[in-house]
Amino acid sequence: MNCDITLTVNGERYAISVPAHHTLLQVLREQLVLTGTKNGCEAGECGACAVLITWPGADHAEPVNSCMVLAPEVDRAEIVTIEGLAQDSQLDPLQEAFITTGATQCGFCTPGILVNARALLNRNPDPSDIEIREALVGNLCRCTGYIRIIEAVKMAARAGKEVAQ
Amino acid sequence: MTSDQGLGTRNQGAGSNDQGVNPNPQYPIPNIQSKKHSIIGTSPQRIEGRAKVTGAATYVDDMQFGPNLLHGMLKHSPIPHGIIVRIDVSKARALPGVRVVVTGQDFPGYTGLYLKDRRIFALDRVRYVGDAVAAVAADTPEIAARAVDLIEVEYEPLPGVFDPEFGASPEAPLIHPDMDKYECVPFIFPQPGTNVSNWFKVRKGDMEKGWAEADLIYEHKYRVPQVQHVPLETHVCVAQQDVNGKITLWSSSQSPFAQRNLIAKALNISHSKLRVITPYVGGGFGSKAGVSIEGAAVALAMKAKGRPVKLHMTREEEFHTTFVRQGLVAYIKMGMTKDGRITAVQNRFYWDAGASTEYGTNITRAAGYSGTGPYYVPNIHVDSMCVYTNHPIGGAMRGFGMPEIHWGIEQHIDRMAHKLGLDPVQVRLKNCLKDGDETLTGMIMHPTGLSQCIQKAANAIGWGEPSVSSGPHKRRGKGLAAMWKAPAMPPNPGSSATVRMNEDATAIVSIGGVDLGQGALTAMAQLAAEGLGVKMEDIRVNTVDTDYSPYEWQTVASRLTWSMGNAVLQAAENAKHQILQTVAEAWGEDIDDLDIIDGQVVSYKSEESQPLKDIVIYGMQRPDGTWIGGPVVGQGKFMPEYVTPLDAETGQGPRAVVHFTTGCQAVEVEVDDETGQVQVLKIVSAYDVGRAINPDMVRSQMEGGAVQGMSTALLEGIILREGVPMNPNFTDYRIATAVDAPLETESIIVEVPQDDGPFGARGIGEHPMVPTAPAIANAIRNAAGIQLDSMPITSEKVWAALQANGQAPFA
To answer: Looking at domain B60-158+234-281+288-321, does it have CATH number 3.30.200.20?
Structure first.
């Protein structure tokens, strides 16, 4: 069975027909060919597929594992994926910080972590070490040991504060 | 090092480490020794960093094959050991949308890297839960799943082997009765009629004398479970056959060339008719070395009438049907004098190698020739036995046997030091291998910074200074472990590279090695830029396509920086030489007076200079108006030519391996005696990397490896009940998260140059997870006085041990 839905992804509006049993992850990767969002477990356990969703009527975006959302659920939602984090090729301070600190190695967990870290900084512009660790607990990384990821989020937070001042 | 091994003299000083031996005099290396290195030893950012942080980096599953793509799926054995009585695929074939069904009858050949004991599909017998008995390709994943369910397989169950020690005994049922027929490399020693597919022995010195000289003899048993690599990207590949029969395989692989070689041989097709393309790889850690699922995808594609077929492992499949790290039961017996000198070591390693040991046999060999740990020991008796079990297939994993054997060895040293009232750091410094010492296989140890690493790690953790706990029921302690590891590989694995110049004086470096996150692309760009004399940003490095990339054996063994680095440096220097020859003739100067600096040819004599732009393609005009030169393509290659065989009965030989990277880790932990929980506060890593091409990336390897080591130490183990994996998911098989990561890490680079490494470099990728687990165990013993013999060190085990010691508060 298919469902007709409308949604906004990275500022672009789509009216599409989706198989009701498909996940948002499948819609993003297979129908919209936004392959930056990764499939790491399809069970909501690794965070590689995290995207930001603003649900209809909500006033802010929240990070969600897109493998755990069925496609019909995102009707009228606004979604930001890793491809939407940079604005007009201007990287998000988090993306800059991930490059600068060496917080990406194989890069497969990176999109989900960046999206989740963006949500963290949106709700808490100056997180402590433990707040960063707890916010990222659902994002598995096997390469970096997380040390530089935590450092990168702190660096981006500092950059954000400088912009705000 | 003796000169009869063809290596020439060894560099001693840190300042003279760029006198790389030119292994290929056909392409002479110009004199660059007087020049200061501007790029080597600096830390430019990862060259593919922007692609990776924007989601633009393309991995196999991101590639688009259109609606014609077929979805492959494997039919797995649900039992650990049994005879296949009947397979009926007729219902699956009849399902609309199913395009291909294949079984072992279609592709019966054997394959394998070191011992050909593995089929693409089980033919007569299944040997582990997950063994592929058939595969389908269908229009959608849903149809493929239904088709797999419709394949009927009847098994006659056989008794299984679920413990390697039992497996090595005469009572054990045979898992591979045909072992004597398997093709095998000459340095592996199968024992037909048993389950032991390799028995590596070391016999050296006089054991009776060694025990007699000891004041303390201590023997103990240690265990390591099978663990999984857990790359965030599971195994995935797409195969397609064209109208001429040529097959292209897009594969998330550490070994595009080895996959081409093994699959071509298994399917009896020409190497020129198989092309392997590897884009970005989402982690490997050894699991994507060699071949696991890729043969099945190629088999499906050969019957798919030109349609591409994708085979993508689920996370559950990844846990037990690709590769796992072998389990180990280790008996360690050691003699020590009361002043801390090791007099004898007798070790028996029983490897839980799983249902196939095509790759694992060489892990057990590596464990054998490294079986003393990084220490000088005069009297040695080592047996390393690769034992078939009805468990998931053991393959290469970061450390290649070393984390497993060091788990016991490094705890053993600590316990003996403790029993003798000695400082574990001093005991290690006394015994650790130094320049000129003989290793257990009779190789003379090359210059190594191991003593420095031990000393620096101990200093950085505040060795000897008291640890202050954060509260009641908390105990802090410190521990330390040393390590060594050689690249474990055949004696002659080759690397090659080309450096092609563009009109604008940028250069394209082609390599056959894979960047799976470790930073190889960036390190190769640095080596090429340095060798050529251009800026880093003027270098592009290609990912691998076996039709266009030069040969590389495999991306394993921490060998790329060293081996492929030599090839890239030589290719860059060769391109430079070609350019300077042209300029020398055009200018009428001596080539030795010319150099390339920041993309400009300069003459030290005439002080002329000219940008490389255009001349690297079009050549230069002579004074008489004619032209010389032309498109510049530099080439380089490297292959070690000095590794010797080892005696089958004694393990002795002049040169077992190319070199050893050595190092040490020190940790501080806090144990909660109410919960048994262990928090790792700090990990210090100190490694001798020869020369850090990119120091920041070297430190990244140390951090990531330490946390992976910590994760295996505290959390990880595949739980197998009668061969059935019980925890193939991230809820039941936990890996370290950001909350578990140590509060602090410190990474120390020691540089004692490698004589045949590029600018003195040797590998560092695997080593940082080798000593982490025993260092943590030693710290826990220091904190709470408990001994932990088996990994992982769960809170439950710690609490039980505290309780047994009468230390847990709520016993």
So the answer is: no
